[in-house]
């Protein structure tokens, strides 16, 4: 019941004595708590706290609101606890076309264990999703993000491609090759820009096809239709292809993780996904897709 959120923030501030402590307890940022308290003060026509460097001191109005709100919030919490066991919780999930789902399976399983009636609904609209499995560069504006791993890009080749006989690949080796494009991936665009700056070695590079997501892209490479630029880790997801780095091009990398809408529900789902006490905690990057 989101309309009770300001009261929950107020109760946390009252009990903990500072807006920052209340924000940590409620798993939100401090401005959200401050703004909610300000709205309550406008509604009840008076200050709820005296502010000082030492923290918050409740006013008479603040003491009265706390005594009245405590019972209301307790009843609502009991009601929500009873209803949660009977109502499916729809969790909207977006997986970017250049991200593979498999590394996120364990996190989704953790959500299901924490919320047994969770129902995952996948969407192609990242802005409407509670959780987003994306590269950081593609995160919708205004969403939170937890990085999970960083990875490099390389050249995907059919497992029988003659170029695999070479000890290392260079730009000059790509001349005459058929390239399968990834128009949905900004990192691949940066890689192609770098290739385009070296006009002579890749003068014969030609577009053979354009994929709509990476699963299709790998199948096209495995079928021998052409070569493609993709994250090195994708080589483990598809039989029949091999990923190699191009030695004379500066490495292009991306950071992949889980994004989430800044709502209480989405924050809870991200917390369960990450198996953490708070989605505000820092999290180190992994070098491989293990979560």
TrEMBL record:
Domain HTH lysR-type per the UniProt entry, residue ranges: 1-59
The keyword Transcription is assigned to this record: yes
PROSITE patterns linked to this entry: HTH_LYSR
A GO cellular-component term linked to this record: protein-DNA complex
Keyword Oxidoreductase: no
Family of this protein: Belongs to the LysR transcriptional regulatory family.
PANTHER family: HTH-TYPE TRANSCRIPTIONAL REGULATOR CYNR, TRANSCRIPTIONAL DUAL REGULATOR HCAR-RELATED
Name of protein: Transcriptional regulator, LysR family
Species: Phaeobacter inhibens
Upper lineage: Bacteria, Pseudomonadati, Pseudomonadota, Alphaproteobacteria, Rhodobacterales
């Amino acid at each position: 019941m989101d309309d009770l959120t300001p009261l929950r923030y107020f109760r946390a501030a009252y009990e903990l004595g500072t807006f920052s402590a209340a924000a940590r307890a409620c798993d939100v940022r401090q401005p959200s708590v401050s703004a909610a308290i300000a709205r309550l003060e406008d509604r009840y026509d008076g200050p709820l706290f005296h502010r000082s460097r030492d923290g918050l001191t409740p006013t008479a109005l603040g003491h009265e609101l706390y005594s009245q709100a405590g019972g209301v919030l307790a009843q609502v919490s009991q009601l929500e606890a009873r209803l949660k066991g009977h109502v499916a919780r729809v969790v909207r999930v977006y997986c970017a076309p250049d991200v593979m789902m498999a590394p996120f399976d364990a996190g989704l399983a953790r959500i299901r264990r924490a919320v047994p009636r969770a129902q995952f609904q996948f969407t192609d609209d990242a802005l409407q999703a509670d959780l987003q499995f994306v590269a950081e560069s593609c995160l919708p504006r205004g969403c939170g993000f937890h990085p999970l791993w960083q990875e490099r890009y390389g050249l995907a080749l059919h497992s029988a491609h003659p170029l695999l006989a070479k000890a290392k690949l260079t730009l000059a080796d790509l001349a005459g090759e058929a390239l399968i494009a990834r128009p949905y991936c900004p990192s691949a665009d940066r890689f192609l820009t770098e290739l385009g700056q070296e006009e002579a070695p890749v003068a014969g590079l030609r577009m053979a096809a354009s994929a709509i997501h990476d699963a299709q892209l790998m199948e096209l490479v495995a079928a021998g239709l052409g070569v493609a630029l993709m994250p090195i880790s994708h080589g483990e997801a598809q039989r029949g292809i091999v990923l190699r780095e191009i030695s004379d091009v500066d490495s292009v990398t991306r950071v992949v993780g889980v994004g989430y809408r800044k709502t209480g529900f989405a924050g809870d789902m991200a917390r369960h996904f990450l198996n953490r006490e708070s989605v505000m905690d820092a999290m180190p990057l992994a070098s491989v897709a293990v979560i």
